[in-house]
Amino acid sequence: MPPKKKSATKGKGKKYVFFFGKGKSEGKASMKPLLGGKGANLAEMASIGLPVPPGFTLTTEACADYYKLGKKALFSKIEKEVADHLARLEAMTGKTFGKGPNPLLVSVRSGAAVSMPGMMDTVLNLGLNEETVAALIKLTGDERFAMDSYRRFIQMFGNVVMGLDHHDFEHELDAVKKAKKAKNDTDLTAKDLKEVIKRYKAVVKKATGKNFPENPMDQLWAGIDAVFGSWNNPRAIKYCQINDIRGLMGTAVNVQTMVFGNSGENSATGVAFTRDPSTGENKYFYGEFLVNAQGEDVVAGIRTPQQITIAGSREWAKSQGIDEKTRKEQFPSLQEVMPKCFKTLDNIRLKLEKHYRDMQDLEFTIEDGELFMLQTRNGKRTAPAAVKIAIDLAKEGLITEKEAVMRVEPSSLDQLLHPVFVQASEDKAKKIAVGLPASPGAATGQVVFNAEDAEEWAGKGKAVILCRVETSPEDIGGMHVAKGILTARGGMTSHAAVVARGMGTCCVAGCGDVNIDYKTKKFTCKGVTVKEGDWISLNGSTGAVYTGKIDSVEPALTGPFGKIMKLADKYRKLGVRTNADTPHDAEVAVRFGAEGIGLCRTEHMFFEGERIVSFRRLILVAETVKSLKDANSVSTLDELEKVCAEDKKALAAIAQYRQALKELLPVQRKDFTGIFKALAGRPCTVRLLDPPLHEFLPHDDAGQKEMAQQMGVSPKDIKNLVEGLHEFNPMLGHRGCRLGITYPEVTEMQARAICEAAVAVKGSKPEIMVPLVGNVKELALQKQIILDVIEDVKKKKKVKRLNVLIGTMIEIPRAAVTADEIAEEAEFFSFGTNDLTQMGCGFSRDDAGKFLGEYVNAGIYEYDPFQVLDQTGVGELVKIACRKGRKTRKNIKLGICGEHGGEPKSVEFCHNVGLNYVSCSPYRVPIARLAAAQAVLRKKMG
Ligand code: PEP
Ligand code: MG
């Protein structure tokens, strides 16, 4: 990604390198934009007295200048600063870089301001060469450890810095393991490892024509170069796109003294969370470690990691069907094998949570019985965990209620609203394996074995489960579109688990019984074969894998979710309604907290069952009736019947028109009655018919033939009708209130159905909304029809009062800029920002998808304006309409019902311009509620 922001420290005195370690840190936690998350937190941890191996951080500004000035210019600028910091590091550690007797080895790691797990590159054990490896052997007396570190370094450096395929190295390692009959890497002796190193060096020589670099300074600069270079790699770019990470300066580079988790049985390395990142539970200390290993072993999922606590270890063993004896012998917890280090780590966990006031994700290494902290950061978590942790931290007094509201990302709530398996259906399903419950939820889909297939199948609308031995950052696109992810290898902190949790995608990881064969696109599991395209189901909360489909149900909305929603409601000012046009959707939305319907689109109602036949009958004669009215200069059907008394054909057309309306009235009334009942006294904005009429007609020959039979006309007549209604640009054509102007009887029928339903359901609050108004006179004409109906219904139903608000959508730019005139007639405005975007930006809703992605990538628009409101342009139209509308009618009710009504950034905009409510699809109601509360709190915080 190109650097976005300007330099924080301008001019000559720019400091590019910051030291950290033993109370001498130059940075602190708040300097994340400059030092990256990792660098800032290493500095902070060292400052508060935690055991952090010392090192230094090259700033994100250096990364920005790497791209701006070029590598050569930047490196010559920072050469001295890096050398000075290296000297300082040598002085503090008493080690020498590139020399014995006590060689300084470092890790070189990336770290942007926002954590992007596994997205950029890392090199460990840098500084090793033939000379320093010999010194290391002498120093530690452990030749195997030194050789293991060296071979890891060559492999990582070769892959990350020199760009060689890591499989080429794996291939050599496997060959040596095979020759030596070694099952695990740890079974290889120092001599075996020497052979591996020899082979690795040959791999490098063969691929590059050069020897592996011996000079540690060259290694360091190449490492720095690789990390800065990795900021622009496709994985990192895709990660930023998916996670909407923008405006970062670049990545920092952390150069840190190595500590060795692979220096024997008294050493270990691990990752841990201060609370469970899947559920938010705080039962025990969650995490995994491996004895005699380096960090990448835990993440790569090559060996089965062990748990931190005894309780966690027992629970894990139970889920894996491992008995206590085997667990104790083969997979004991850290608490059991290194009780002292465990105690220190547990204290650090508590200290860090208090210090950062949030759940932390920790990396640690134990070198010969001594614990070191390598990282802390606010841990990634699932949405259920985020909600629970926020509520619990507030209860524990670590954060305030308001902070709890701000801690949950509104759009992530989507994950809490997804269905879970129906217990009975799950009980009946055939369970074939149990893996780790890496990311909760339930998924049913067709099996695919690689990310490209996942993207292709999902593109065709299929639900897919991505099955991989283990995932890597290259799989990110496929993981994003999959309903669920199943991996055969890897723990709770494997790439698949971490990424799936971040995405809110159901994931079962480390399912060892699943044997995947990519070549034949099959997996076998305890005698069952599952092929590409077969259906399977995953329960991400238990780790169970099933063959076939399983029914699912809506989730419960109580517990921490209910609490965070209650808090959101306490602070928000915006009302939240829903877009729904069936009683069922209305009920779902009310359960999610909708305070009414902001948009009931009535066109969907015309498609159901027999009514499409009635409506088509109406359309068939509508134009004839209209022409007759015009020719005879009459405006009502009664008048027309009188003047056409002798014209049998005309009378037949009028009769058909009337009959269709008569058939439609009761079914529409029934629809509205059902919806009003579901809303139980909450307001309901019903929009009159909006789409162009041709949308209700069949366009294929078979459909037209069928319609002709139903209507008793020839297929040619139907074809002519369809052709007659054809428009070159239907979105700007005969639709919205223009239909009501041409066919006022349709408006009348709809208004009558609404009013009669309102009389039938006590306490209902209908609001009739006229669509696509651009001129106040359109609204005035439609309003008069509605007012006449209200009076008529009152009279006929003998009711004194029938409170129906009449308003309009603001979805045409002309309506926005003449809102003062329109407000003379309208009692409310609802911003139809889908059409307002279409007409405001001049982007066809139907066609712009083809190029909008490119527009966003090129930065022409920051976001797709159909998803996130274009505040600069379309938002300005909204502001104008609000101002002008209020000028005429001080208390005019203002809402939004375009797709933007459930999008957090747009909701914030709606709050800031003072709308009364937002309206969105049922599943986005909780998102809008939380976003509305955050808008209030963010404004208060300035
Ligand atoms: C709109 O235009 O924003 C709107 C809600 O109406 P529709 O999407 O039905 O055109
Ligand atoms: Mg519209």
What features would you describe in this structure?
- This protein is an alpha/beta fold.
- Helices cover 48% and strands 16% of the residues.
- It has an 8-stranded mixed β-sheet. Strands 26-27-28-29-30-31-32-33 form an 8-stranded parallel beta barrel, surrounded by 7 helices. The protein has a 5-stranded antiparallel β-sheet with strand order 1-2-7-5-6, with helices on both faces.
- Helix 2 (60-68) packs antiparallel against helix 3 (71-93) and helix 15 packs across helix 21.
List keywords for this structure.
942 residues, alpha/beta, eight-stranded mixed β-sheet, elongated, disordered N terminus, binds phosphoenolpyruvate, binds magnesium ion
The average pLDDT value, as a whole number, equals 92
| Uncertain residue ranges | 1-11
Name every ligand kind in the structure.
Answer: phosphoenolpyruvate, magnesium ion
Please work out how many helical segments DSSP would assign. Answer: 37
What's the total number of strands? 33
Content of β-strand: 15-25%
SSE class: alpha/beta
Helix content, binned percent: 40-55%
From the N-terminal CA to the C-terminal CA, the straight-line distance is: 29 Å
- Report Rg: 33 Å
Task: Give a short account of the largest sheet.
Answer: 8 strands, mixed
Shape: elongated
Q: Strand order, main sheet: write it out.
A: 14-24-23-16-17-18-19-15
Outline of this structure?
This protein is an alpha/beta fold and 942 residues long. 48% of the residues lie in helices and 16% in strands. α22 (583-591) links the parallel β26 (575-579) and β27.
SSE diagram, text form:
Layout: E1 17-20, H1 32-47, E2 55-58, H2 60-68, H3 71-93, E3 96-97, E4 103-104, E5 106-112, E6 122-126, H4 130-140, H5 143-161, H6 166-179, H7 190-208, H8 216-230, H9 234-242, E7 251-257, E8 268-273, E9 286-291, H10 295-300, E10 306-307, H11 310-320, H12 324-330, H13 334-337, H14 339-356, E11 360-367, E12 370-378, H15 383-395, H16 401-406, E13 420-421, H17 423-428, E14 430-434, E15 436-439, E16 442-448, H18 451-459, E17 464-468, H19 476-481, E18 484-487, H20 495-503, E19 506-509, E20 514-517, E21 522-525, E22 528-531, E23 535-539, E24 544-547, E25 552-553, H21 559-571, E26 575-579, H22 583-591, E27 597-601, H23 611-632, H24 637-643, H25 648-679, E28 683-687, H26 701-711, H27 715-725, H28 737-742, H29 744-760, E29 765-770, H30 776-797, E30 805-810, H31 813-817, H32 819-822, E31 828-831, H33 833-841, H34 849-857, H35 874-888, E32 893-896, H36 904-912, E33 917-920, H37 925-941
Parallel strand pairs: 3-4, 16-17, 17-18, 18-19, 26-27, 26-33, 27-28, 28-29, 29-30, 30-31, 31-32, 32-33
Antiparallel strand pairs: 1-2, 2-7, 5-6, 5-7, 8-9, 8-11, 9-10, 11-12, 13-25, 14-24, 15-19, 16-23, 20-21, 21-22, 23-24
The structure holds phosphoenolpyruvate and magnesium ion (MG).
Magnesium ion is lined by residues 811, 832, 834-835.
